[in-house]
UniProtKB/TrEMBL annotation:
<dbReference type="InterPro" id="IPR045626">
    <property type="entry name" value="PGDH_ASB_dom"/>
</dbReference>
<dbReference type="InterPro" id="IPR006139">
    <property type="entry name" value="D-isomer_2_OHA_DH_cat_dom"/>
</dbReference>
<dbReference type="GO" id="GO:0051287">
    <property type="term" value="F:NAD binding"/>
</dbReference>
<dbReference type="InterPro" id="IPR029753">
    <property type="entry name" value="D-isomer_DH_CS"/>
</dbReference>
<dbReference type="GO" id="GO:0006564">
    <property type="term" value="P:L-serine biosynthetic process"/>
</dbReference>
<dbReference type="InterPro" id="IPR006236">
    <property type="entry name" value="PGDH"/>
</dbReference>
<dbReference type="InterPro" id="IPR002912">
    <property type="entry name" value="ACT_dom"/>
</dbReference>
<feature type="domain" description="ACT">
    <location>
        <begin position="454"/>
        <end position="517"/>
    </location>
</feature>
<keyword id="KW-0718">Serine biosynthesis</keyword>
<dbReference type="Pfam" id="PF01842">
    <property type="entry name" value="ACT"/>
</dbReference>
<feature type="domain" description="D-3-phosphoglycerate dehydrogenase ASB">
    <location>
        <begin position="325"/>
        <end position="442"/>
    </location>
</feature>
<dbReference type="Pfam" id="PF02826">
    <property type="entry name" value="2-Hacid_dh_C"/>
</dbReference>
<protein>
    <recommendedName>
        <fullName>D-3-phosphoglycerate dehydrogenase</fullName>
        <ecNumber>1.1.1.95</ecNumber>
    </recommendedName>
</protein>
<dbReference type="InterPro" id="IPR050857">
    <property type="entry name" value="D-2-hydroxyacid_DH"/>
</dbReference>
<dbReference type="Pfam" id="PF19304">
    <property type="entry name" value="PGDH_inter"/>
</dbReference>
<comment type="similarity">
    <text>Belongs to the D-isomer specific 2-hydroxyacid dehydrogenase family.</text>
</comment>
<dbReference type="GO" id="GO:0004617">
    <property type="term" value="F:phosphoglycerate dehydrogenase activity"/>
</dbReference>
Length: 527
């Protein structure tokens, strides 16, 4: 099998390339290209490793015909069109913890730089001015720090600030009271934070809810003399309002590591008194860059080589240890989803996936995604485990995952049921041994069959002579039967015949089978 090919398109610690090679991938490091150059190149790659410079747009994803995974060596993924990548079946991963300490330290460094006006003092001193009387700082001890966002980085900033004897208040709608107590901070609403904080630091992602969270109106509500630090994302603060309020002296200082437009080369804030900035350096320490480079390469190689999924933003996690155990189940799950998707008629809006026996001990989400991948193929050819749950949601499907404690007839069982206009339709399968996936039930009828390749499904009246008739029809049509499986509800009742054949079954043969005596349904299936 050809090695997966990975492109590293942003500057990254060389350890990333080394890990890719060690883990069985071919890797190219080509940084600083224009979008057009990337579009021309991306088609040959299975993986794309990035930081924040590469913008993974719809156009790039459309050209990325082989792409399976995008790995962000860092946290923020606002430079990736995740919904579009998901629709294309591309996994998007990040490294959510590798640079958190480093970025928290940068926020604290900027807070001190503002409190003591270090950059300005440094500049004038080096110009020979010795401006000893020109600077009067403030202590941080005893002051109130207002965190907007108390996730990974916000929590680390809080712990450092508490160590500096600051009081910490936080606005984060997802922060629980228990977690706030654990962190030693006070959970407040945004208005309270604005009115109480002497320093404000931001630590949220940029989303529709957080964009412009420090709007002009909110900046005007801050305590006079506040100092603001943003090491999270540009776009969280109204930069024009920030300039006006720095100019008026309402805000005593602001430090930005991130800007609404990056690279920021001509911001109106440049040159403003008490304004300092760094060029998106929050994550730029040796330690953090080694961490994120190693982690992203390990995660991406794991996925490309073993199917392990870690820190994906659009797919359930699956450890490299779990992946081989789950693999035969994934095939079974996908085939059951595909079978029920091919057989059931009408407007299908409900699907449930039940796990019993050994299957109940496995991760449910990946199996659910595999069932949906098989099932959604009734609507689109380009479905896989990544985009299937999104497509199902888009179609308004109600997806249920049920885990049974009970002991069943099989050691391990997966059952997939769809709700149709005519009632529920259910298929079930098991594994014989470690990896022999078998169908064991179809619409309430017990059967035992492998689902593979071209198959013919027939429902007929259980009567003597039928098997001979279908065998003769296929033989006369030059179609070789590979496997042959029978099941029936009861003697003389409804029977099911499932057989695999060596070639796709032409329509005229299906039509002829429909006309055979006792036949109720004939369908060609593909797996
Ligand atoms: N400057 C840099 O170089 C740099 C480096 C690393 C991370 N970052 C950025 O820092 C930010 C925080 O990273 P993190 O790892 O702490 O993320 P995180 O996901 O751990 O934390 C984000 C927090 O924001 C909170 N939040 C979400 N919506 C909110 C809202 N409307 N109001 C208030 N809080 C809200 C969440 O509940 C969460 O607790 C991200 O934007 C990330 O991209 C920047
Ligand atoms: O979200 C992040 O991880 C930071 O913004 C770091 O971005 P960078 O990798 O471009 O330095």
């Amino acid at each position: 099998m050809a090695k997966p090919k990975v492109l590293i398109s942003d500057k990254m610690d060389p350890n990333a390339a080394k890990i890719f090679e060690e883990r069985g991938c071919d890797v190219d490091v080509i940084t600083g290209e224009t979008p057009e150059q990337l579009i021309a190149r991306i088609g040959e790659y299975d993986g794309l490793a990035i930081r924040s410079s590469t913008k993974v747009t719809k156009e790039i994803l459309d050209a990325a015909t082989n792409l399976k995974v995008i790995g962000r060596a860092g946290i923020g993924v606002d430079n990736v069109d995740i919904p579009y990548a998901s629709g294309k079946g591309v996994v998007v991963m990040n490294t959510p913890f590798g640079n958190s300490i480093t970025t928290a330290e940068h926020a604290i460094a900027l807070m001190f730089a503002l409190a003591r006006q270090i950059p300005e003092a440094n500049e004038l001193t080096q110009k020979g001015e010795w401006p000893k009387n020109g600077f009067m700082g403030v202590e941080v001890t005893g002051k109130t720090l207002g965190l907007i966002g108390a996730g990974n980085i916000g929590s680390i900033v809080a712990s450092r600030a508490l160590g500096l004897r600051m009081k910490v208040v936080a606005y984060d709608p997802f922060l629980t009271e228990e977690r706030a107590v654990e962190l030693g901070i006070e959970k407040v609403d945004l208005e309270t934070l604005l009115s109480r904080a002497d320093f404000i630091t931001l630590h949220t992602p940029l989303t529709d809810q957080t964009r412009n969270i420090l709007s002009r109106e909110r900046l005007e509500k801050t305590k006079k003399g506040v100092r603001i630090v943003n090491c999270a994302r540009g776009g969280l603060i109204d930069e024009a309002a920030l300039k006006d309020l720095l100019d008026s002296g309402h805000i005593a200082g602001a430090a930005l590591d991130v800007f609404a437009v990056e690279p920021a080369k001509d911001s109106p804030l440049f040159g403003t008194k008490n304004f300092i900035c760094t060029p998106h350096l929050g994550a730029s320490t040796t330690e953090a860059q080694v961490n994120v480079a190693l982690q992203v390469a390990e995660q991406m190689a794991d996925y490309l080589v073993n199917g392990g999924v870690t820190n994906a933003l659009n797919m359930p996690s699956l450890s490299a240890e779990e992946a081989p155990k789950l693999r035969p189940y994934m095939k079974l799950a996908e085939n059951l989803g595909s079978l029920v998707g091919q057989l059931a008629h009408g407007n299908l809006t409900q699907i449930s996936i039940e796990r019993e026996g050994a299957a109940a001990e496995l991760a449910g989400k990946p199996l659910e995604a595999a069932v949906l991948a098989g099932f959604m193929r009734r609507y689109s050819d380009s479905v896989n485990m990544v985009n299937a749950p999104y497509l199902a949601k888009e179609r308004g499907m109600d997806v249920r995952s049920i885990r049974h404690e009970r002991e069943g007839a099989y050691n391990t069982l997966l059952r997939v049921t769809v709700g149709t206009d005519a009632g529920d339709r259910s298929v079930a399968g098991t594994l014989f041994g470690q990896d022999n996936a078998r169908l064991v039930e179809i619409f309430g009828i017990g059967i035992e069959a492998e689902l593979a390749g071209h198959m013919l499904y027939i429902v007929n009246e259980d009567a003597p002579g039928f098997i001979g008739r279908i065998g003769t029809l296929l033989g006369e049509s030059g179609i070789n039967i590979g496997t042959f499986h029978l099941g029936r509800r009861d003697a003389g009742g409804e029977a099911v015949l499932l057989l695999s054949v060596d070639q796709a079954i032409p329509k005229n043969v299906i039509d002829a089978a429909c006309k055979l005596e006792g036949v109720k349904t004939v369908m060609a299936l593909e797996f």
